[in-house]
Amino acid sequence: MLLVWRLASNERCRKSREGSQIIEVAAAITYYVHESWWDGQFIACLHRGDCIHCNEGRGQEVGSTLRRGKWHGPFKSRSKAVAKLASVPRITVRVTCECTESQ
User: Fold this and answer.
1) Which of 18, 31, 56, 85 has the fewest CB atoms within 10 Å, counting from its CB?
2) DSSP helix/strand/coil, 98
3) Binning pLDDT at 50, 70 and 90, where does residue 32 land?
4) What b/e readout covers 12-24, taking b as 16+ CB neighbours within 10 angstroms?
5) Taking the complete model, does pTM exceed 0.85, yes or no?
6) What CA–CA distance (Å, rounded) separates 84 from 75?
7) What are the backbone dihedrals phi and psi of residue 78, each rounded to the nearest 5 degrees, phi first?
8) Where are the alpha helices (DSSP H) in the chain?
9) Which of 89, 55, 85 is nearest to 72 (CA)?
10) How many domains does the structure of the chain reveal?
């Protein structure tokens, strides 16, 4: 059996050979809300965990000392993440990343 793990984040696969049958197991998609402040505006943005901007809640500036934002999550469903997006206080702009448009 050939076991193929297809990750939701990209084309990476881990394979194990035990015969000839193929089983596909998709990794669970997670969602995050990023809260940030820029130029006097408070912004909240919905991301999928596998988004290059989100990086499973670590963002792009791993190790950075800048504190320009806060990640909320992971959320196992899009509806829970959208509820969090709506409930973050002080937010003047609420948006969704293009990574969520395929949902």
Assistant:
1) 18
2) helix
3) very high
4) eeeeeeeeeeeee
5) no
6) 9
7) -65, -35
8) 78-87
9) 85
10) 1
Q: Is the pLDDT at 73 greater than 80, yes or no?
A: yes
In a domain, 85, yes or no: yes
Residues 33 and 88: their CA atoms lie apart, in Å, by 9
Measured CA to CA, the distance from residue 52 to residue 56 in angstroms comes to: 9
Residues above pLDDT 90, as percent of the chain: 38
Better pLDDT: 75 or 3: 75
The residue behind tokens 């448009």 is 101
Is 57 part of any domain? yes
Is residue 73 in a domain? Answer: yes
How far the first Cα of the chain sits from its last, in Å, is: 32
Q: How large is the average pLDDT for residues 82-91?
A: 92
Instruction: Report the alpha-carbon angle 3-6-7, nearest 5.
Output: 140
Indicate whether 92 pLDDT > 60. Answer: yes
Locate tokens 């809300």: which residue? 33
Contact in structure between 54 and 19 (CB atoms under 8 Å): no
Structural domain containing residue 81: 31-100
